């Protein structure tokens, strides 16, 4: 390898490293800082918050409503004590549609949070999100409403 080829090789290697590093920083930098405490033990490599096509429940809104009707459980103790509220559940929709890293992000009532997480974990695979025409991991948040009036 001559001197020119060595310099070219090093330059290409440096540019490639910079490009890969920049892509990683861009992907993880877009995750809102408020979620850091929920993602401490999570691999955030190539995890997106804003994508070109959001992940979606297979079958759309109607299927999601049907899923709620079949699988939603209002904890007995919370119902008995008149506790209501919305639990916001954070999770990742993986490139294969699987739901992982499910966690409640707010505190309403321990029973409600536990049931909301359990409910989201029961969900079947979703249609994955897309960025630049390829399937990507997407951080998602789903409100789970517990209401005694509805």
Written overview of the protein:
With 150 residues, the chain is α+β, with helices and mostly antiparallel strands. The chain folds into 2 domains: 1-30; 31-146, Fusion Protein Consisting Of Minor Coat Protein, Glycine Rich Linker, Tola, And A His Tag, Chain: A, Domain 2 (2-Layer Sandwich), CATH 3.30.1150. 38% of the residues lie in helices and 25% in strands. It contains 4 helices and 7 strands. It has helices at 3-29, 60-71, 76-80, 110-122; strands at 47-48, 56-57, 85-93, 99-104, 126-127, 129-131, 134-146. Strands 1, 3, 4, 6 and 7 form a 5-stranded mixed β-sheet that branches. β6 and β7 (134-146) form a beta hairpin. The longest helix has 27 residues, at 3-29.
Give the H and E element order.
HEEHHEEHEEE
- CATH secondary-structure class of the largest domain: Alpha Beta
Beta-strand percent range: 15-25%
The coarse silhouette is: globular
Q: Please give the CATH architecture of the largest domain.
A: 2-Layer Sandwich
Main beta-sheet annotation: 5 strands, mixed
Assign the structural class, choosing from mainly alpha, mainly beta, alpha/beta, alpha+beta, or little secondary structure.
Answer: alpha+beta
Q: Helical segment tally?
A: 4
Mean pLDDT: 81
Number of domains: 2
Low-pLDDT segments: 3-29
Gap from first CA to last CA: 75 Å
Radius of gyration: 21 Å
Count of extended strands: 7
Relative helix content? 25-40%
Q: What is the third-level CATH name, the topology of the largest domain?
A: Fusion Protein Consisting Of Minor Coat Protein, Glycine Rich Linker, Tola, And A His Tag, Chain: A, Domain 2
Protein name: TonB family protein
Subcellular location: Cell inner membrane
Signal peptide: 1-29
Domain TonB C-terminal: 59-150
């Amino acid at each position: 390898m001559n001197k020119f080829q060595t310099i070219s090789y090093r330059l290409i290697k440096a540019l490639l490293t910079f490009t890969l590093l920049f892509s990683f920083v861009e992907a993880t930098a877009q995750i809102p800082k408020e979620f850091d405490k929920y993602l401490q033990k999570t691999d955030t490599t190539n995890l997106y918050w804003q994508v070109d096509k959001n992940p979606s429940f297979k079958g759309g809104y109607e299927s999601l409503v049907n899923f709620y009707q079949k699988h939603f459980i209002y904890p007995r103790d919370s119902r008995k004590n008149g506790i209501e509220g919305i639990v916001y559940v954070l999770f990742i929709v993986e490139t294969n549609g699987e739901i992982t890293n499910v966690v409640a992000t707010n505190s309403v009532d321990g029973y409600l949070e536990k049931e909301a997480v359990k409910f989201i974990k029961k969900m079947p695979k979703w249609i994955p999100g897309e960025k630049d025409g390829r399937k990507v991991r997407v951080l998602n948040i789903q409100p789970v409403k517990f209401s005694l009036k509805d």
